[in-house]
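anyone else get weird line breaks when pasting these?? whatever heres mine. first is seq + tokens for prot A
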Amino acid sequence: MHLPAIECRTRQGPGAAAALVLALVAALAVLVGQATPAAAQAAPPRDDSVDEPVIMIHGFHERPYLGDPVPWGYDCADWWKAARGAMTAQGWTGELRTYGYYQSDENCDWYYTNDTPDEAKQARLGDRNTPLTDVAQDLAWKIYRSYSSKGKSVDVMAHSMGGLVIRSALTEVSKGNPWFPPHLYVEDVVTYGTPHAGTTVSALCGNRFNRFNQCDEMQVNSAFLQNQIQNPQGAHGTDWTLFGSDFDYFVPARSATGMEADHKVIYDRSARINHQSLHAITDGTYGMRYINTPNARWTHDDTGAAPVRAGTNSLYWHKAW
């Protein structure tokens, strides 16, 4: 599959009596402190753009399996270095902002801080027992305060469990959860190796004396996964592209593409793209099969684009692909 290169392309009003009543009601509202709130920011346009901010979210940290629930953590700058470098070289001009949700993460632009609207910003928090919905809530408010509340949209690029974080954020906002923001403008989402349909490998992390909540939430048919909306949408629409690999032994390709989405890509086993490299391979051509609408047939291509290149193009096109 040769993906396209990014391109830098009358009704009469109320009568007098009714108008007087409305004026009195408005005046009374002001007196009791209940004036109508200001109108929300208009939704931003959905367009094909290289200046869209991109939020990059890492996945579960699998080592060490036992002991302290706080893992060694991610160096966000290093984890996303290849993708950020390639996207910039390919002409992406929007800011590339990383999000970490373990207290031992470092060099991230945003951290999980339990940053809800009625709480002051707290010290960095988060470990593998932190419910994904809590992480999603924190991320949702950060996106809302920095972008959505100002009428700006973002894209998201997520690896592994990170894709469940943004899926949960959009799910809860779509359901009207009062602990989440009123709306989010997330135009495109790319997920690499995300266990949308769960993974049996998560049963191996921890043991019967020390299970991690995040592992349990990634189990097939977990309560968390059953609560997720298929193809959750932001307030002005969200275009999802799901990437998987037949060489991924942590998240099978059928799970990585196991959510309703218009665009899905699965790399051949012979491409030898494993779980830990899906988000970092930036060039070359690889055998893959892809699908562009839920009702279309899978198409095979021996010269498919590298995951980061294909993902970048997916973020660029807001509906076409």
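and prot B, same format (seq, then tokens)
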Amino acid sequence: MKELEIVIKPEKMENLKRILDREGARGVMINTIFGYGRQKGAGQVYTREETPGINLLPKLSVRTVVRDDIVEKIISRVFEELNTNSFGDGKIFIKNIEDAVKIRTGERGEEAL
């Protein structure tokens, strides 16, 4: 199992939900976050008078735990459908999950998803 943390622009959430549903993710956890990347939250064009500073931009952190066999499909779909080739499109972080336990039933592993 893998945990995918997908950081996106808020306006891309509905597209991401469709991708995750279509590819077989069974649940998501969503947090509103603020941050910046290499661009420090700055726009793409500056004039001489502008002083680039650090701007914290609103993003969504969408986490889901999925079976290993659908990870690459999800990554490919996210890249194909959410990529605008602009700064701030987001990132995907992939983490190994050792085990999961469903509290209601005691199921473990992939059955707990």
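btw re prot B: The chain has a mean pLDDT of 90. The domain at 2-42+52-112 is CATH 3.30.70.120 (Alpha-Beta Plaits).
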